[in-house]
Amino acid sequence: MDAEELKNIQAPIKDKYREVPDAAMITLKAQGKIGDGISCKVETGREMAEAGLHPATGGNGMLACSGDMLLEALVACAGVTLSAVSTALGIEIKDGIVKAEGDLDFRGTLGVSKEVPVGFQVIRLSFLLETDATDEQIQTLAKLTERYCVVYQTLVKGVLVETRFDKK
Question: Which of 43, 100, 144, 145 could lock 71 by a disulfide, CB 3.0 to 4.6 Å apart?
Fold first, then answer.
């Protein structure tokens, strides 16, 4: 896809959202089913992903770790966003690798230490690009990828999470 094709696809969508702002509000959904042992089967739209305990918390390593899945979602979103931005700007990316690494101290998760926070303490997102883009173009790609990546922005800004527990 080139910049013109992307513009042609997105122009009517952008026009609609300008004319009817409420049309841009979409609710994305995810659903999982509590599985055998300590697991949860998550419907991904393509297949089921079964998440379980990370080996550092007693898991056997056979099931997906939700922390890994969060990093995978970040990589996916950042990679797609980078591709869309580079396409829109006419910057050719011949090849590229997107990586996310996150540091956790599992003492918090396991309740070993109340002083240790639960969750990632730092996440590092990196891009290794094969491109002829100038340093200035790379800076623009970085700025716009960060600005428009939904998962990145959600992590950086935080979001209100409302929780409910109901009985069947």
Answer: 100
**Residue 34 phi/psi, 5° resolution?**
-60, 125
pTM of the model: 0.89
Q: What SS3 class is residue 45?
A: coil
Q: Which residues pair with 131 in a beta bridge?
A: 93
The pairing of strands 64-65 and 48-52 is parallel
- φ and ψ at 165, to 5 degrees? -125, 120
Q: In one letter, which amino acid is 151?
A: V
Residues 6 or more apart whose Cβ sits within 8 Å of residue 38: 52, 53, 59
Half-sphere exposure of 88 (CA within 13 A, CB side): 16
23 in Cβ contact with 29 (< 8 Å)? no
Q: List strand residue ranges (DSSP E) for 12-168, in order.
A: 31-34, 39-43, 48-52, 64-65, 93-104, 120-131
- State the amino acid at position 22 in one-letter form: D
Rounded Cα–Cα distance for residues 82 and 88 (Å)? 10
Which residues share a beta bridge with 127?
98
Q: The tokens of 1 are what?
A: 């896809």
**pLDDT at residue 35, as a whole number:** 82
Contact 3, 90 (CB under 8 A): yes
Place of tokens 């609710």: 27
